[in-house]
Amino acid sequence: MKKNTVTTLAQMKQNGEKISQITCYDFSTARIFDEAGINSILVGDSLGMTMQGYEDTLPVTMDEMIVYGRSVGRACKNAFVVVDMPFMSYQVSVEQAVTNAGRIMKECGVNAVKLEGGKSVCPQISAITACGIPVCAHVGMTPQSVNSFGGFKVQGKGEENARRVLEDALAVEKAGAFMVVLECVPPKLAALITKKTKMITIGIGASAECDGQVLVYQDMMGMSGDFTPKFVKRFADIGEQMKTAVAEYDREVKAGTFPSAEHTYPKSDCSDEFLSKLDNEYKEV
Ligand code: KIV
Q1: Which residues line ligand 1 (CB under 6 A)?
Q2: Does the active-site annotation cover 183?
Q3: How far apart are CA 90 and CA 222, in angstroms?
Q4: Which residue among 17, 64, 85, 260 is least crowded, i.e. fewest CB within 10 A of its CB?
Q5: Residue 285: pLDDT band with limits 50, 70, 90
């Protein structure tokens, strides 16, 4: 397998080949996904919900993104790794955005950063890309603005909103973004954006009209509890499998059947004579 880069991914778009991306936040899972042949891994700030149990992504900090991003960066030999810039790590000023994007690249050893927003974050995108850091933008439903949207809702419904989402996408491309996540965008609008831009469009709830797809891995693996958004397909039931495995382990530990001889080191044991000597020596203890 070959390392995915901005060049190979752009070539895939040109050839009409679809691009696969999945979220991931830790070393062992990232290694599995990388070996599975995924094109790209997104260390999304969705980790605030999936790994930390928050209601939304707003509490996630830069230091936390660095810890998760570094673990994934170390695991991936082939996947193109993108790390999210968390809420308020790039909105305040261009200078802060560049400093934080630089931190992610230096400390995580990954391939790109992602930030949410359209026209309003173009100065940040221009400045970050000017430093040689590839930027993935994110338009449509941008979870860091959940409070402005009044909930996690489909964006680009109606002519006004559709124009706004398209203009945002064209603006981030002009600013230098090489990839854009379209979240909860209707299919025809996603198709139009994908046609009108050289950027790679990655959809989540934005139909198969995009150049590629991303899903939050706990959602598609059946590890997110009962709520599943409409756009999520469940590809496995790992949550149930883990429950079954842990319940079996619990049962075997309590029954004394684990560990059996197969999982112990009898050959390394000392002689009975020596152990009896030890037993005598430590009688008082
Ligand atoms: O944080 C995240 O995981 C994301 C994806 C949902 C696109 O931004």
Answers
A1: 23, 42, 44-46, 84, 138, 181, 183, 204, 214, 216
A2: yes
A3: 33
A4: 260
A5: low
* pTM, to two decimals: 0.94
Domain co-membership, 156 together with 213 = yes
190, 154 contact by CB (below 8 A): no
Phi, then psi, of 213 in degrees rounded to 5: -135, 150
Residue 79 in any domain: the answer is yes
Residue with tokens 């449509």: 140
| CA nearest neighbour of 183 among 31, 45, 90 | 45
- Ligand 1 geometric centre to CA of 42 (Å): 7
Q: Do residues 182 and 265 share a domain? A: no
Whether 1 maps to a domain, the answer reads: no
Which residues have CB under 8 Å from 108's CB, separation 6+?
43, 66, 69, 70, 72, 73, 81, 83
Residue 36 lies in a domain: yes
